Amino acid sequence: MLLAIGAALLFAVNGNVSKVALQNGVSSLELVSMRSAGTALILMAITAVRSPASLRVSRRELGFLALYGVTGIAMVQWLYFVAIQRMPVGIALLFEYTAPLMVALWVRFVQKEQVKSRLWLGLACALGGLALVAQFWKGITLDPVGLISAVGAGAALACYYLMGEHGQRERDPISLMGFSFGFSAILWAIVSPWQEFPFARLTHTLDLPGALPGSAPLWLMVLWIIVLGTVAPFLLVLLAVARLGPARVGLIGMLEPVGAGMIAWVLLGESLNTLQIVGTVVVLVGIVLAETARQPATSVPEQEAGALHPEGASPLPEGMAP
């Protein structure tokens, strides 16, 4: 449980560290590019030490890994970074965490799997809670681009789960993540070539927000995002899944949006009103109901794939991004 809680808290802190970096001279494209490249290098090094044979990729598998990296890693991260630039971190995570609902609806209506009736209650709770958070009756109180990006991140994350179920039939999760982050890095290197990258900007010193005293260089925050915001919590999730099972780790992972919102409130001043807090609780209840809606015989592989979330701790019974 301590491993799972540690992973969720590291992911929660990472969202806020990422937002500080984004507010101090790093673009969402630059940050996702550095995060992808750094994470890929570390995970591939781990793979080379513990399982060198996993570095071999067949021609048949290459296309899948490239698509998985672009869809499940690159798009999830980039859209998430765009969202947290424009809206509170906790709210952005809530919209991204609708991915389990999307997956459950996909397996019910497309894959024709049986799901428990609690799915519909979970869907109603999630939609109702999100309406309270966004307060649509006042018009759109959230930034439209941020809102679209957060929902898009959720859709990309749902694709990530579904593709991850297939990917782990072929290889271990560490090498799968290493290659996926690698293809994400290749995509962003094409979009924004590394020779044009503003490396000098990383030496700038920025003041730390809120209750944190002092200042820190920008490169140190980026290093935190790569090592303590991605690689470390991902490995903690894998260790926790081996001891608790994916379902329990996934439920503990729900600490991430709660923790991220609380940290953002203290450090970034991103407070929510009473209705938004109620909506947050209702959304979390809906997600938990959706996570447990798939029949046991078919839920385990997907739950294990969820343990690879590129943004945060597993919303599926997931994290890993997030």
What would you note in describing this structure?
The protein is mainly alpha-helical. It has one domain. 70% of the residues lie in helices and 2% in strands. It is built from 13 helices and two strands. It has a two-stranded antiparallel ribbon. A hairpin with a 7-residue loop joins strand 1 and strand 2. Helix 4 crosses helix 7. The C terminus is likely disordered.
Write the layout of secondary structure elements.
Layout: H1 2-22, H2 28-50, H3 59-86, H4 89-96, H5 99-109, H6 118-134, H7 144-167, H8 173-191, E1 205-207, E2 215-217, H9 218-244, H10 246-252, H11 255-267, H12 274-291, H13 296-306
Antiparallel strand pairs: 1-2
Helix pairs in contact: 1-9, 1-11, 2-3, 2-8, 2-9, 3-4, 3-7, 3-8, 4-7, 4-11, 5-7, 6-12, 7-13, 9-10
Task: Supply the key terms.
mainly alpha; two-stranded antiparallel sheet; 13 helices; 2% strand
